[in-house]
Q: What sequence folds into this?
């Protein structure tokens, strides 16, 4: 066998919170193919819903570079540990306790974040996002940078920026208009209302969606979501919307009886990997590179301006928003938006007591 040169940046790509492994590639009938693999990159921080720390961002960059260079890798599967979340974005505890109020530091962090998104978009192998749970905020952004997304149908999707002191300019404002159109992108990014996996599929955000709830030994569709195509009293399509009233109560009861099983998700991911195994590798790579261009063009056009703005925002709204999320109660992790707007309208400066006065603890004081 020919002796190859090593084109990886470093020999040891291991970083805390990120797992990289190569799993044997399989044909569509399940037969293992000798000498070929699919690379699995797993965000392994389930205690914090797989939110990425600075070290984890480095780990993702190195893992994608290694997978891209691996001559024996067919596809890359990007996923999260457990069944609660693929990723909920940046680690809010680290943001609040280290980066808040330090724009120069956050600017350096955002260089790493930008490189992570670019590493996904530049991977020489097809990238499948295995959505094992919530894909929210920055998690939604790195997920949309992937070429394919397959989700279990209990997963929720959405952005969180304007609710927590940021703007979804780590990819969402670049990718969503391309994928779902400007109106739906506007609603998703500005209103920050989460949506179901079935809604994501209907919008065109997902390649496929499979059940994950098992009740009495059988898989059932997400019982909290309307999975049949229906119209409401106004003639609107409510497919993928949350159930209400008695239907919601029945759905919650069914959820309580069931267990989460991701075997169908894994089977669907393997099926997709197997289909790509039966293609010319270079033709597949070129096709993917061309199809990435609308997302890549928008990303490259905006990422440096976005990085600069996000760094400066750490002195004002991001500092307040991330502090509120980190220090607020489970029931209330948002600032007092109305009071903030009133104070700004009256000319109050961010330099002074404004930050403290809009925190959740101030809202509930007394």
A:
């Amino acid at each position: 066998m020919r002796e190859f040169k090593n084109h990886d940046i470093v020999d040891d790509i291991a970083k805390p919170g990120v797992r990289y492994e190569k799993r044997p590639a399989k044909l569509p009938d399940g037969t293992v193919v000798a000498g070929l693999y699919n690379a699995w990159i797993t965000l392994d921080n389930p205690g914090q819903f797989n939110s990425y720390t600075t070290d984890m961002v480095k780990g993702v960059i190195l893992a994608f570079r290694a997978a891209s260079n691996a001559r024996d890798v067919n596809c890359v599967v990007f996923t999260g540990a457990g069944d609660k979340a693929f990723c909920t974005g940046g680690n809010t505890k680290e943001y609040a306790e280290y980066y808040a109020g330090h724009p120069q530091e956050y600017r350096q962090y955002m260089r790493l974040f930008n490189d992570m998104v670019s590493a996904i978009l530049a991977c020489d192998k097809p990238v499948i996002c295995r959505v094992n749970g919530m894909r929210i905020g920055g998690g939604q952004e790195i997920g949309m940078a992937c070429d394919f997304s397959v989700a279990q149908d209990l997963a929720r999707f959405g952005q969180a920026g304007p609710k927590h002191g940021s703007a979804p300019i780590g990819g969402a404002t670049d990718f969503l208009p391309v994928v779902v159109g400007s109106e739906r992108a506007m609603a998703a990014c500005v209103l920050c209302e989460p949506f179901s996996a079935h809604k994501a599929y209907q919008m065109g955000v997902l390649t496929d969606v499979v059940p994950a709830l098992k009740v009495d030994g059988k898989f059932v569709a997400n019982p909290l979501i309307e999975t049949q195509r229906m119209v409401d009293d106004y003639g609107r399509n409510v497919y993928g919307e949350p159930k209400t009233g008695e239907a919601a109560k029945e759905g919650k009861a069914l959820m309580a009886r069931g267990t989460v099983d991701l075997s169908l998700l894994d089977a669907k991911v393997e099926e997709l990997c197997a289909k790509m195994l039966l293609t010319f590798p270079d033709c597949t790579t070129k096709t993917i590179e061309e199809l990435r261009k609308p997302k890549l063009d928008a990303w490259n056009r905006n990422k440096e301006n976005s990085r600069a703005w996000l760094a400066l925002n750490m002195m004002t709204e991001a500092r307040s928003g991330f502090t509120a999320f980190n220090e607020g109660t489970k029931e209330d992790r948002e600032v007092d938006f109305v009071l903030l707007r009133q104070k700004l309208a009256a000319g109050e400066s961010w330099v002074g007591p404004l930050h403290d006065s809009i925190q959740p603890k101030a809202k509930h004081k007394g």
